[in-house]
Amino acid sequence: MEPKNKILLVVNPISGSFDKANLIKTVETQLANININIQVYETQGEEDKIAISNLIKEHKPERILVAGGDGTIQLVAKVLKDFDLVLGILPAGSANGFAINLDLPYDLNEQIKIAVGSKIFTVDTLELNGEMCLHISDLGINAELIRHYEHSNFRGMFGYFLQSFPTLFKSNYPYKFIIEANNYKYVKKGVLLAIANANKFGTGANINPHGKLNDGKFEVLIFKKLSLFQIIKTLFKNTKMDSNFVEAISTEEAIITCKKPIAFQIDGEFIGKRKEVKVKVSDKKLKIAVSEHFNPA
Ligand SMILES: Nc1ncnc2c1ncn2[C@@H]1O[C@H](COP(=O)(O)OP(=O)(O)OP(=O)(O)O)[C@@H](O)[C@H]1O
């Protein structure tokens, strides 16, 4: 019998430091069992957007699956701005911060079932200086850390830890941020300013308890000081944030400025140093396949 559907699977071969051959085989086998044919595209690290876009135009898949980390999900999400297609996610990055917010299971077979399933969740996307952001971006110490990490040979969570020590010593924190939002000008000092569409970092830490992926808003979070105790508490999923440590501004639009250029990252990808970031909720939404039990609380 002719396979009834076609699915495009976009795989990042280097994300999360593991070989994707087994993953691809498992997806192929499981979907062949339900008569779905897949086409695999392995990212190259350049010109991927145009290649994926051309594959969609040529083969007209009914759904896109992505196996990679936040950077790969974001890459595919950018392409999907031009197509009305649902995205299924097979988390295969080092931190998988965005997937954690969607409560996807750890088991690959379960993930595949969900990725081709019928429950769809529509999420907001943000525009930061015109660039798409799905999850969390920041200015300051975490972006600095990602910059060092990208220049190192380590991938995976361990890389973050190794890089954190030189980063902390080299940074010029605290920074002074001016945030124009809700018809108000806030002047704040902090080590890190995060722009959060979602509420959880890749560690599972709930840094933004008020964040909802589909509320038409985002939060600007100012982390005031580098407190080892607070950082450890945050990493262990503490949901009550101490206002001496972090402050949140909820808004639909914001202009963030600082006197000197500060390290800036979007969804885990280092962008460069910036003095101004303009943020707004985009009118482009993203449709994602989620578990039947998913509740966007
Ligand atoms: N074939 C390739 N060779 C080298 N780099 C690649 C290739 N394909 C994609 N990339 C790079 O991979 C990065 C995206 O990785 P991604 O964020 O998905 O994984 P990760 O960093 O392991 O996970 P996470 O973001 O969840 O921590 C991008 O910088 C992209 O340029």
UniProtKB/TrEMBL annotation:
Superkingdom is Bacteria
**Which is an annotated GO molecular function term of this record?**
ATP binding
Q: Which InterPro entries match?
A: ATP-NAD_kinase_N, Diacylglycerol_kinase_cat_dom, Lipid_Phosphate_FormReg, NAD/diacylglycerol_kinase_sf, YegS/DAGK_C
Q: DAGKc domain: which residues? A: 2-132
| SUPFAM superfamilies reported in the protein's UniProt record | NAD kinase/diacylglycerol kinase-like
Record SMART domains: DAGKc (SM00046)
Which terms are listed as keywords in the entry?
ATP-binding, Kinase, Nucleotide-binding, Transferase
Q: Which Pfam families match?
A: DAGK_cat (PF00781), YegS_C (PF19279)
- Gene3D superfamilies noted in UniProt: 2.60.200.40, Probable inorganic polyphosphate/atp-NAD kinase, domain 1
Q: Please give the name of this protein.
A: Diacylglycerol kinase
**What species was this sequence derived from?**
Gillisia hiemivivida
